[in-house]
Amino acid sequence: MPSSTTITTTSMVITPTHFTKHHQKFVAEAEEKEEKEEFELLSQECKELLLSLPKEKGWRTPFLYQFEGFWCQPKEIQSIISFQKHFKSKESDVILATIPKSGTTWLKALVFAIINRKRYSNTQNHPLLTSNPHDLVPFLEYKLYANNQVPELSNVFPDDHDQPRTFATHVPYPSLEESIKNSENVKIVYLCRNPFDTFISSWHFINKLRPESLPGKFSLEDAFKMYCNGVVGLGPFWEHMLGYWNESLKRPKKVLFLKYEDMKEDIVSNLKELASFLGFPFSVEEERENVIEEIAKLCSFEKLKELEVNKSGKAMTFSKQFENKHLFRKGIVGDWVNYLNPSMVNQLSQLMEEKFEGSGLSFKVL
Fold it and tell me: EC number(s) on record (predicted)?
C-alpha cells in the first residue's frame, strides 16, 4: 500500500453563494406565507387599497406600505381608515401621540395619574399597580378601531365622572381624524425622543416581537439603513415629529410638545407644565405635599417594570397578544452609544441636521 493516498470525493461542497441563495429563497417563502396570512385578516377594501400603494420590506411584517405619506403595516392602515371614518371627538378629549418607542407607556401612566389623582389619591390602591398603562389609556388604532371594528365609546368611557376621555395614538398628525384637528379644545400631548435612542429601542423591540415564521434576527445594519431611508413604522421619523412640532408652534394651547430627555432630566417641572396644559394644575398645597414627586415615582420606569402585571401580564394588539415585559428594556438616555459605530452616528447626525434645518427642533447628541 502506498505511503500516501489521495482521496477524491464527489460530494457537493456548499459554497457561501449556495448558502446565500438557499437562505434568500427560504426567507422569500417565509415572507410570502406571512404576507398571505396578514392579507386574510383584512377587509376587501383594504386589500384593494394595498395593491395600489408603494411597499418596502418591513421590520416585523413582510412589507410596509406607504399610506398618506407614511409607512404602515397592513393592519395599521385598515384600523387608521376605520378610525378616520368613525371617530368623533368630544371637546374635552385628550390625545397622547408618539412615534413608536418614544416613551409611550410612560406618558400614558403619567397622564392617567395626573387626571385621576383625585379619584385615586391613595397610591397604595392605584390602578397603575395592577393594570398596564396601555389598558388604562387605549390606543385608537391598535385597540379601539383594530380589526375593522367600530367601538361604542360610551361603554369604554362611561359618563360617571368628569374626567376627559384619554386616547393614545402613533398616527401622524396629518392622518388624525378631522374633528380632532379642527377642534380648538381637544388637547394633544406629543412626546418625542432622540432619534438615536428611538432607533435602538425600536430595533430591540422588533426583534422581540418578530414572528417565528420570519427567519433570523433583523440585523442592526439592515434596520439602520431602512430607518435612515424613512422606512420604519409610521415613519419617516422626521416627518412624524415635525408634523406635531409645527402644530405646537401654531397652536400651543392645543398641542404640547415634550421631549423624553427633558422629562428625564427634570420630571417635576415637566409634570407641572403637563398638568397645567391638561387643565389639571397642581395646587400650592399639592406641591407642598409632594404630590408631583409621588406621581413621578409611581409612574417611573423602575416602578412600572417591577410590577407583576408588567412582568408576567399580556396585552392584546389587533388579534394577537404580546407580553408586557417587552415594553420595558432600559428606559435610559444615550444607550445608542453601545450600538452605533462612528459612521452610523455621522450619517444619522447629518440626516437630522438636514431634515430639521430651520424648524427650531433639535436634539442633543452625546
Answer: 2.8.2.-
Residue 333, pLDDT > 80, answer yes
Beta strands in the chain (DSSP E): 55-57, 63-67, 70-72, 94-98, 166-169, 187-192, 255-259, 314-317, 320-323
pLDDT tens digits, residue range 119-134?
887 667 899 999 989 9
C-alpha cell read off for 175: 392622518
Between CA 238 and CA 216 the distance in angstroms is: 29
Look at residue 16 in the predicted model and tell me its pLDDT: 47
Average pLDDT over residues 189-198: 97
Q: Catalytic: which of 18, 23, 134, 170?
A: 170
Question: From CA 17, how far away is CA 137, in angstroms rounded?
Answer: 50
Residues in the chain: 366
Cβ count near 171 (within 10 Å):
26
Q: What is the pLDDT of residues 133-157, one digit of tens each?
A: 998 999 999 999 998 889 999 888 8
Contact residues for 256 (Cβ-Cβ < 8 A; gap 6+)? 187, 188, 189, 190, 248, 273, 274, 277
199 phi, psi to nearest 5 deg: -65, -50
Measured from the Cβ of residue 268, the count of other Cβ atoms closer than 10 Å reads: 15
Is the backbone peptide bond immediately before 151 cis, with ω within 30 degrees of 0?
no
Q: What domains can you pick out in the chain, each with its CATH number? A: 77-356 (3.40.50.300)
Give the single-character DSSP code of 185. Answer: S
Mean pLDDT for the chain? 86
- List of residues 6+ apart from 102 with CB closer than 8 A: 191, 192, 193, 198, 260
In sequence order, the β-bridge partners of residue 187 are 94
Q: What is the separation, in whole angstroms, between the first and last Cα of the chain?
A: 71
pLDDT value of residue 162? 73
Task: Note if 170 is an active site residue.
Answer: yes
What is the predicted pLDDT for the residue at 310?
Answer: 74
* Secondary structure (DSSP) of 191-239: EE--HHHHHHHHHHHHHHH--TTS-S---HHHHHHHHHTT-STT--HHH
| CA distances for 63 relative to 38, 60, 99, 212, angstroms | 10, 8, 19, 16
Alpha carbon distance 88, 37 (integer Å): 32
